[in-house]
Amino acid sequence: MSFAIALSAPDDFEGWRDAAARLAAAGIPPEAVEWNAGDGADSLFGSAPSPLPDVPPQPIPESFRDLARFAICHADSQRFALLYRLLFRLTSAPGLLSNRADADVSRTHALAKNVSRDRHKMTAFVRFREVAREDQSPAFVSWFEPEHHILRLTAPFFVRRFASQVFSILTPKASAHWDGESLRFGPGASRRDAPDGDRFEALWLTYYASIFNPARLKVDMMKSEMPVKYWKNLPEAALIAPLIRDARARMQGMIAAPTASRAARGPGYLPQVEPAGGLTACRACPLHAMATQVVPGAGPENARMMIVGEQPGDREDLEGQPFVGPSGQLLDEALRRSEIDRSTIYLTNAVKHFHFEPRGKHRLHKTPTRAHVEACSPWLRAEIRRVEPEIILAMGATAARAVLKQEVAVKAMRGRVLSDFEGRKVLITWHPAALLRLTTREEKRAAWAEFLADLRLARDIAQIPLHLPFDGQAPEKPPEAAALSLSLQSDARRPQSPRHT
Ligand code: URA
After folding, report:
1. Which is it for the CA torsion 257, 261, 267, 270, positive or negative?
2. φ, ψ for residue 177 (rounded to 5)?
3. pLDDT in tens, 204-239
4. Which domains does the chain have, with CATH numbers?
């Protein structure tokens, strides 16, 4: 007996999942199923849709579901059949997904990875133009040409980012429309339906030219990050050739004036002094006597973002690594939700030794004093100067004081881009431990949303690419956020204008 399954759209994951779960439960072999998603995918003869077997659906493993959700958005015409074959085979070989040498497994991962990349490019290269609505209020429209069926998968990213605006994203095969309250999807559009420029275009081009850093110019890398096929829809692309041409001269100018730019950072500039003997030998305050070991910062020396916490906790003190205890787990979850790869961030603390009070078998965290922070300041400054991040995210009052050298009320100052006394960008946010201490659900939701919004803002300022969930790896299971009693639904982003992402 053969089955013809009609799906409602080329990315109809739910339709595929429900049908596949019943077909697999009924033992229907892959070669007996024909899939039709109305886009030519797998559709052979346009057979009339068959009723599904009347059996309870077979449970689909979570790791496969996550992978399939991405792979199904691929433009490959065989994707539904491939995924059903894999699901069918998983019934008798539950460990199959970890066999990357298997042709079906590796093909599915490749599809998911392509989709993930396309989605990443969309989040980076959608450009909105302002249009006036009938009542003269602004709306924003963009035109984008994805390779795969990623619009439904990616539109929520823009909704989170531009929640308070009205916008449409037009693509050749589908369109998404956000009216400030609900997200709707409609048919495809044409390039002519989207405006060509708007009153902000000149401003954006000036801004783009000003942030173009000739010292960081690597043309091949730039083309791989920003493939040429996207250029036709990017207004700034017209500037790239002249900027590249001028880069050499600008770079020579920068080399000729190093002292001027340092001096321009202001009178607070201090020469770099690392205390003698190295960090492990530091005796500048009494904390070294009680702590197990010093906990230095960790991360790449060319990181674009540095995150500064307060001091190591109990776990960090034992392991010698920052952010490996409960605060670190919460930070990991927030980084994951902000699509930031932890391994690209430099993580450190204002104070490098654990300050605690022994209480029976336990060691209770104590806030470091001003003197502890002062004593550790040369180490932090040395790290900052070594890494020279694009932005420093200071989590909590102690980190903010250490970075900005002044008292800071986190509640009032968080979320704003400030400068340290050497002119670097600094963003203040909540410390994860403060989130863990909150008691009411409302407080937790609000602070968690703010924390995520701050992380994402820092990510965007530092221009850190979104971390791809399927970069050749099976998706990582999120840490137990429920154990941290935080709502997973609460990652609303602080609304901005959807001008450029
Ligand atoms: N809290 C911090 O501020 N830093 C750590 O490394 C761990 C917990």
Report:
1. negative
2. -135, 125
3. 666 566 556 666 666 777 677 778 888 778 877 777
4. 3-121 (no CATH), 126-193 (no CATH), 201-251 (no CATH), 282-500 (3.40.470.10)
- How confident is the model over 269-292, as a mean pLDDT? 69
CA 360 to chain centre: 42
pLDDT of residue 24: 96
pLDDT at res. 31: 96
Q: Is 131's pLDDT higher than 70? A: yes
Write the DSSP symbol of residue 304: S
Q: Of 47, 59, 41, which is closest to residue 3 (Cα–Cα)? A: 47
In whole angstroms, give the CA distance from residue 104 to residue 93: 13
Tokens at residue 380, please? 């932090």
- As a whole number, mean pLDDT of residues 371-399 equals 92
Compute how many other C-beta atoms are within 10 angstroms of the C-beta atom of residue 437.
11
pLDDT at 199: 64
Determine the pLDDT at residue 174.
93
114 ligand 1 Cβ < 6 A: no
Beta bridge partners of residue 309, listed in sequence order: 349
Q: Is the pLDDT of residue 441 over 50?
A: yes
Ligand 1 binding pocket mutation candidate from 292, 293, 294, 327 (most atoms within 8 A of CB)? 327
Backbone angles phi, psi at 140, to 5 degrees: -125, 135
Pocket lining: 329 vs ligand 1, CB cutoff 6 Å: no
Tell me the sheet residues that pair with 125: none
SS3 91: helix
Whole-model pTM: value is 0.54
Please report how the helices 396-404 and 370-387 are oriented relative to each other, as an axis angle in degrees rounded to 10: 70
Mutate to test the pocket of ligand 1, among 306, 315, 316 (most ligand atoms within 8 A of CB): 316
Nearest in space to 396 (alpha carbons), one of 423, 366, 365, 435: 435
Only one residue has tokens 């491939």, namely 82
Please tell me whether residue 351 adopts helix, strand or coil conformation. coil
Amino acid found at 297:
G
Long-range contacts: 278-281, Cβ < 8 Å, 24+? 279/352, 279/379
- CA-CA distances (angstroms) from residue 201 to 37, 133, 488, 497? 39, 19, 37, 14
CB 331 within 8 A of CB 299: no
